[in-house]
């Protein structure tokens, strides 16, 4: 998928294999992976003679944004039920928390240089 | 002949008593829940408090359905559950029977029929919508997680600073876990990994792994479903919020084992105040104050509830559910 994202033109299986030289993967392995990516909707493919040409269905950033927005519950859809470490707080609460942390680290926790 | 008459009356009395007891249980659960929201002891014993919330939710829901059904379908000796199972035979028998116990020899059988149909319909509708929303929310959660896993397989990578966790190239702070039967994943954003120190990251990981290990997502699911079913009910919203906060506190407690509180507190505060982005419209008020509660609890450790008190709470939760189920069956 990284290979597909790095280029602007649709690639054939052979071209993708050629760009994955350091991995030394079998042609059929690359074909299977690309086929699965296409079936899952992450890659689009079009016929070019006897071969398929693959390109990404969306940019990497689009997927990262989708992933994180779902995780941060900002899609307005609360169904994912992913438990987050903490919410972002804003305004006065943030001030209060920072002061509390400063006071606490001043008390006895100052040995760790965090800043 | 007088015997016959007496027996019928006694059975009808039982049906009415069932309805009254179930209604009392439903009301009691609601009252108990509203007393539990502002109480301060739950933060001293989050696990016991979660159990009590679950008991109140289950008993309240079952009792509410049971009340409506027993009013609409006086199956007498069969009990509420039995009457429902034999709906086809019980309803025609019961529909027009006069409520002798009230002393109202009814001149309005149609009114009575309408009343019973309405109660029965409302009870069944409530039961169906509760089941449906639970299934819908579970299915949506499963689907969202499947999508997350597929995306993570493409986008995430490991990082030596956070062994065992996946890292996604995203500048804003984010840390969450993806629960599941076979794969349990902790996900962090690059922003988080860069913001926090090694000790703080370890605290975050310990916190998230506690969520995964104890399947806190399953604890939250029914309350999220309840909130989804009755989004306008302040009680359901508060219940979901309270349980969500208790689950976080429970995971905080796990993260504290063998780690200094300082790491977790500074991780929480720096994490929470990092973005300070305005929360998305409409989603704000829900979390307001929860972070402060968690941090305050870590800064000034509260005495855990005595073991006997926790045991009493667990016992009470069990009895509440058992009593409700017994009333529905007998």
Structure, described:
The complex is a heterodimer of chains A (115) and B (330). Chain A is α+β, with helices and mostly antiparallel strands. Chain A contains 5 helices and 4 strands, in the order αβααββαβα. In chain A, β2 and β3 form a beta hairpin. In chain A, α2 crosses α3. Chain B is mainly alpha-helical. Chain B folds into 2 domains: 1-155 and 305-330, no CATH class; 156-275 and 286-299, no CATH class. In chain B, 70% of the residues lie in helices and 4% in strands. Mean pLDDT of chain B is 83; it is low at 1-7 and 276-288. At the A-B interface, α4, β4 and α5 of A face α5, β2, α7, α8 and α9 of B.
Compose a concise summary of this entry.
By secondary structure, chain A is α+β, with helices and mostly antiparallel strands. Chain A has helices spanning 2-6, 13-19, 27-39, 60-71, 92-107, and strands spanning 11-12, 43-48, 51-56, 83-84.
Based on Cα principal axes, name the global outline of chain A. Answer: elongated
Spatially, the strands of the biggest sheet of chain B line up as: 1-3-2
Instruction: Please provide the ordered H/E string of secondary-structure elements of chain A.
Output: HEHHEEHEH
Please name the two chains that share the biggest interface, counting residues whose Cβ lies under 8 Å from a Cβ on the partner chain: A-B, 42 and 75 residues
- The largest beta-sheet of chain A arranges its strands as 1-3-2
- The Cα radius of gyration of chain A reads 23 Å
Query: How many domains is the backbone of chain A divided into?
Result: 2
What gyration radius of chain B follows from the Cα positions, in whole Å? 25 Å
Question: Tell me about the biggest sheet of chain A?
Answer: 3 strands, antiparallel
The largest sheet of chain B, given as strand count, sense and whether it forms a barrel, is: 3 strands, mixed
CATH topology of the largest domain in chain A: Arc Repressor Mutant, subunit A
Net shape of chain B: elongated
CATH superfamily of the largest domain in chain A: Winged helix-like DNA-binding domain superfamily/Winged helix DNA-binding domain
Taken as a percent bin, the fraction of beta residues of chain A is 5-15%
What is the number of E strands of chain B?
3
Mean pLDDT of chain A: 71
């Amino acid at each position: 998928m990284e290979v597909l994202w790095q280029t602007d033109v649709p690639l054939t299986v052979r071209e993708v294999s050629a760009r994955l030289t350091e991995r030394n993967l079998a042609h059929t392995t690359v074909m299977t992976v690309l086929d699965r990516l296409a079936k899952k909707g992450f890659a689009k493919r079009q016929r070019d003679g006897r071969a398929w040409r693959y390109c990404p269905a969306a940019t990497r950033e689009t997927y990262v944004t989708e992933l994180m927005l779902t995780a941060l519950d900002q899609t307005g859809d609360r169904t994912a039920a992913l438990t987050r470490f903490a919410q972002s707080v804003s305004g006065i609460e943030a001030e209060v928390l920072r002061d509390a942390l400063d006071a606490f680290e001043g008390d006895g926790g100052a040995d760790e240089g965090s800043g | 002949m007088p015997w016959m008459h007496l027996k019928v009356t006694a059975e009808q009395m039982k049906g009415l008593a069932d309805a009254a007891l179930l209604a009392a249980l439903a009301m009691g659960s609601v009252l108990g829940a509203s007393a539990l929201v502002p109480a301060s002891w739950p933060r001293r014993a989050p696990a016991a408090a979660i159990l009590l919330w679950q008991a109140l939710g289950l008993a309240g829901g079952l009792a509410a359905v049971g009340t409506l059904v027993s009013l609409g379908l006086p199956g007498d000796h069969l009990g509420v559950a039995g009457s429902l199972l034999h709906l086809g035979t019980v309803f025609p028998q019961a529909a027009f029977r006069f409520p002798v116990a009230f002393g109202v020899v009814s001149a309005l059988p149609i009114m009575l029929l309408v009343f019973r149909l309405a109660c029965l319909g409302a009870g069944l509708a409530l039961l169906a919508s509760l089941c449906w929303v639970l299934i819908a929310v579970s299915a949506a959660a499963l689907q969202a997680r499947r999508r997350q896993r597929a995306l993570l397989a493409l986008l995430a990578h490991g990082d030596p600073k956070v062994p065992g966790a996946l890292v996604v190239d995203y500048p804003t702070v984010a840390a969450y876990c993806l629960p599941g039967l076979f794969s349990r994943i902790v996900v962090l954003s690059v922003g988080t990994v860069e913001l926090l120190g090694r000790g703080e990251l370890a605290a975050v990981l310990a916190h998230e792994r506690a969520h995964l290990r104890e399947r806190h997502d399953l604890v939250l699911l029914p309350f999220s479903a309840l909130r989804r079913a009755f989004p306008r009910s302040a009680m359901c919203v508060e219940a979901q919020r309270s349980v969500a906060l208790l689950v976080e506190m429970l995971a905080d407690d796990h993260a504290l084992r063998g780690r200094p509180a300082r790491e977790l507190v500074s991780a929480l505060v720096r994490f929470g105040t990092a973005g300070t982005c305005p929360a998305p419209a409409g989603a704000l008020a829900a979390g307001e104050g929860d972070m402060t509660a968690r941090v305050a609890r870590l800064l000034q450790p509260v005495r855990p509830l005595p073991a006997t008190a926790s045991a009493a709470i667990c016992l009470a939760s069990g009895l509440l559910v058992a009593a409700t189920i017994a009333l529905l069956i007998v």
